[in-house]
Amino acid sequence: MRGETITAAFAGRLGTFALDARFEVPARGVAALFGASGCGKTTVLRCVAGLTRLPGGVLRVGRDVWQDGPRFRAPHRRPVGYVFQEASLFPHLSVTGNLRYGLRRARQGDDDAAPPVAFDEVVDLLGLARLLARPTAVLSGGERQRVAIGRALLSQPRLLLMDEPLAALDRPSKDDILPYLETLHDALAIPVLYVSHDIAEVERLADTLVLMEHGRVRAVGPLADLLADPALPLVRAPEAAEVLDAVVIDHDPAYGLATVAVAGGRLVVPAEAGTVGTHRRLRILASDVSLCRSPPAAGASSILNVLPARITGAQPTDGHLVTVVLALGADGAGAPLLARVTRKSWDLLGLAAGQPIHAMVKGVALVDRP
Ligand SMILES: Nc1ncnc2c1ncn2[C@@H]1O[C@H](COP(=O)(O)OP(=O)(O)OP(=O)(O)O)[C@@H](O)[C@H]1O
């Protein structure tokens, strides 16, 4: 579905809740529906699956119309895989049995669709080989969720819907399953609508962000753009961060560091391994970036990453802080980055939009799998 989009418009009342959600996202990669609890994310997903029917709704997936005016494709005729917070596996079936159930539900191939996902491929991508013969009752929460995702994928969905798939898991199980989701993202051509209220999760997985507030879509666009938009509340969040696409250009195993290139600069980042030429996703917290007018002399600072940039905007944050939006590169033509400084520093340095500056990056993490 290259170049195609998913277009959705759902408006109406559910009890006292008013939904008016409209968005268009690419029909590839992961689009995250993100927003506070109760803003309507699950309701949108249910509308996409056809489980909630709002009159006047519109849903187009690529060239297929699933809802428009009187046209409404019944839920069981929509080729979606649905993964919920709690994996609802069949208790009387083994892992293999649950996965095979997905295969039985598989839609027949159509020309438009992504290539079919094979049983062995799913087992491999989700690390299920060891579990195949087990009854589902003995699985851990993370394992159950991997099986649920596998079952959904084997139904050969045109679209994968994931509703807080990690929310019910403890931290170690989340950390266990996230790399599998990243692998799926890279390996499969199936677009994903991913509901979450955890921005760190979104920053690891999403390409596109649909930011929801009180039943409405506040903003939609590439994740990196929205994270650095001073008009949106994301920049003011305590954990505000930016994600950057980086290409590995060197790896130094002696120090466990890789040098990566991003648009407008280079960074040295912790990396156990690094294949030159591979793309990786970086996440840099605003609170890990400070600003200086000129770079410290060589050998004068422990900070390895000092990058020329331009200030493009700023947003007062939390009384005494300012979140500064930067564009990397001396000409400010590179990727966006956020820095968090005190309002006092902002005043003392006489900072303003348009000024050249240096970003001192104290912490940076690769947040995807090598
Ligand atoms: N069928 C319904 N009848 C009445 N109210 C409903 C119905 N479905 C959803 N709501 C209400 O709509 C609002 C949005 O619910 P929804 O589950 O979509 O939010 P959410 O953003 O997914 O929240 P969370 O992150 O907590 O899961 C809630 O106030 C919910 O109670």
Describe this structure in words.
With 370 residues, the protein is an alpha+beta fold. The protein has two domains: 224 residues, 3-Layer(aba) Sandwich (Rossmann fold); 127 residues, Beta Barrel (OB fold (Dihydrolipoamide Acetyltransferase, E2P)), CATH 2.40.50. The chain is built from eight helices and 21 strands. The protein has a six-stranded mixed β-sheet with strand order 7-8-9-3-10-11, with helices on both faces. A hairpin with a 3-residue loop joins strand 17 and strand 18. It is globular and about 65 Å long. The two termini are 26 Å apart. Adenosine-5'-triphosphate binds next to helix 1.
Describe the structure in brief.
The protein has 370 residues and is α+β, with helices and mostly antiparallel strands. The chain is 20% helix and 36% strand.
Class from helix and strand fractions: alpha+beta
The number of distinct β-strands equals 21
CATH T-level topology of the largest domain? Rossmann fold
Name given to the CATH homologous superfamily of the largest domain = P-loop containing nucleotide triphosphate hydrolases
Mean pLDDT: 92
How large is the radius of gyration? 22 Å
Overall shape: it is globular
Kindly estimate the percentage of residues that lie in beta strands according to DSSP. 35-45%
